[in-house]
Write a structure and sequence with these properties.
- With 483 residues, this protein is an alpha/beta fold.
- Strands 3-2-1-4-5-6-7-10 form an eight-stranded mixed beta sheet, sandwiched between helices.
- Helix 5 links the parallel strand 5 and strand 6.
- The longest helix is centred in the last third of the chain and has 34 residues.
- The chain is globular, with a radius of gyration of 25 Å.
- Homodimer.
- Belongs to the 6-phosphogluconate dehydrogenase family.
- This is 6-phosphogluconate dehydrogenase, decarboxylating.
């Protein structure tokens, strides 16, 4: 009798193919299925030839080929396709079997699906998978959450196929119940949006303002990749600067209109729902939206002019300032992301391990960097740390970078260079460390036109007051609430 598979996977697109090849290379027997069954044949006779794969041609055949408790992993497009597939799989499963969603599902959907599947006596896991095609094949960062009872049955597979950091520590651990895994992956992707936009702003300043050649930018990013900014995204940016097509930098032949798949937008919307100032990631999403208005920007540039002036001064010094601005802004981005995770944990009763999350992101994923080790240390030193900006290491780093950061934002504004994430990060930092903000006037305005009430500095927090500002209004006040 043929040996049954350790796990089954539905969805042989790029990520699915590479993930099952990773599993098989670690000694697991994997059953595969795809709705378009020709893909099964192509895989089994192609990249999967001679390996421990079981090709199946129906969901029932896939399920029947699995060891109990059965583990069925889906890697399909987020949304309705996941719900439809769950309904196709569940009739073939038994109590205690496990369904795993490894796609980029929105975490509220995973919360709902976990409840739905558990009500059928089954277990459900929603797992973030980060690292792209290469990570899936050689070791991704995995962020599983959902039915806690499922973890002992998938732990070895997940941790064996994940990326490893120092002392062979896997970039994978249990995140929390229901939608916690997909939530953490969503925040990861939001931070990814921010990191990419920050690096793009640095490139824009170096190219358009400083007038650096691509070779000079290559050398700059290469140097940065050996210090505080050591990361996958800096590394690939260096490589992009060095890539030539017909002797010319390919990057300059790429249209400046960015796409997106929605996870950054979800992160921003969640922050608004929870009242968290996620300004940098929000600006990075809007920067992509603005870039997509290419034709309108071309027309506007002919009417409004192209305002960027060329730099006059010490280029080497200013490149150092750009590095400072990039690193300090990166700290703010992660600080905001971690505040969002903290607030979501309160809202959803999740027990998130913030240091552990940084460790999961240390390898395999798109935002992997040496910097994340410092975040883990910060939360190891103080698990209740309210904001990374208050950690001694990050306080010292921002203090050192602050002058250069301000110089970059100031010169960008003075010379017409858009730097939405550099500037929003600096505004957040200044706002966070300011004892008195002008929200007192804002509250007075709200009370004046809408009787929305205000609190007083000479009274305890939680007591609300209304003033009849014009003498024509009454004493009735609006309901006080926060969103």
């Amino acid at each position: 009798m043929n040996k049954k598979a350790d796990i089954g996977l539905i969805g042989l697109a790029v990520m699915g193919e590479n993930l099952v090849l990773n599993m098989e290379s670690k000694g697991y027997n994997v059953a595969v299925y795809n709705r378009t069954t020709e893909k099964v044949d192509k895989f089994i006779s192609g990249r999967g030839a001679g390996k421990n794969f079981i090709g199946t041609y129906s969901i029932k055949e896939l399920v029947d080929s699995l060891e109990k408790p059965r583990k069925v992993m889906m890697l399909v497009k987020a949304g309705a396709a996941v719900d439809a597939l769950i309904d196709q799989i569940t009739p073939h499963l038994e109590k205690g079997d496990i369904i795993i969603d490894g796609g980029n599902s929105h975490y509220p959907d995973t919360i709902r699906r976990t409840k739905y599947v558990e009500e059928k006596g089954l277990l459900y896991v929603g797992s973030g998978v980060s690292g792209g095609e290469e990570g899936a094949l050689t070791g991704p960062s995995l962020m599983p959450g959902g039915s806690a009872k499922a973890w002992p049955f998938i732990k070895d597979i997940f941790q064996n196929i994940s990326a490893k950091v120092e002392d062979n520590i896997p970039c994978c651990d249990w995140v929390g119940q229901d939608g916690a895994g997909h939530f953490v992956k969503m925040v990861h992707n939001g931070i990814e949006y921010g990191d990419m936009q920050l690096i793009s702003e640095a490139y824009h300043i170096m190219k358009e303002y400083l007038g650096l050649s691509h070779d000079e930018m290559y050398n700059t990013f290469d140097e940065w990749n050996n210090g505080d900014l050591d990361s996958y995204l800096i590394e690939i940016t260096r490589d992009i600067m060095g890539y030539r097509e017909d002797g010319k930098p390919l990057v300059e032949n790429i249209l400046d209109a960015a796409g997106q798949k929605g996870t950054g937008k979800w992160t921003g919307i969640t922050a608004l729902d929870l009242g968290v100032p996620l300004t940098l990631i929000g600006e990075s999403v809007f920067a992509r939206c603005l870039s997509a208005q290419k034709e309108e920007r071309i027309s506007a540039s002919k009417i409004l002019g192209s305002p960027i002036k060329k730099f006059e001064g010490d280029k080497k010094q200013f490149i150092g300032y750009i590095k400072d601005a990039l690193f300090a802004s990166k700290i703010v981005s992660y600080a905001q992301g971690y505040v969002l995770m903290r607030e979501a944990a309160k809202e959803n009763n999740w027990d998130l391990n913030y240091g552990g999350i940084a460790l999961m992101w240390r390898g395999g994923c798109i935002i992997r960097s040496a910097f994340l080790g410092k975040i883990k240390e910060a939360f190891d030193n103080n698990p209740e740390l309210p904001n990374l900006l208050l950690d001694p290491y990050f306080m010292q780093k921002i203090d050192k970078a602050l002058h250069g950061w301000r110089q970059v934002v100031a010169q960008a504004v003075l010379n017409g260079i858009p730097v939405p994430t550099f500037s929003s990060a600096l505004s957040y930092y200044d706002g966070y460390r300011t004892e008195f903000l002008p929200a007192n006037l804002l509250q007075a305005q709200r009370d004046y036109f809408g009787a929305h009430t205000y609190e007083r500095i000479d009274k305890p927090r939680g007591e609300y007051f209304h003033t009849n500002w014009t003498g024509r209004g009454g004493d009735t006040a609006s309901t006080t609430y926060d969103v």
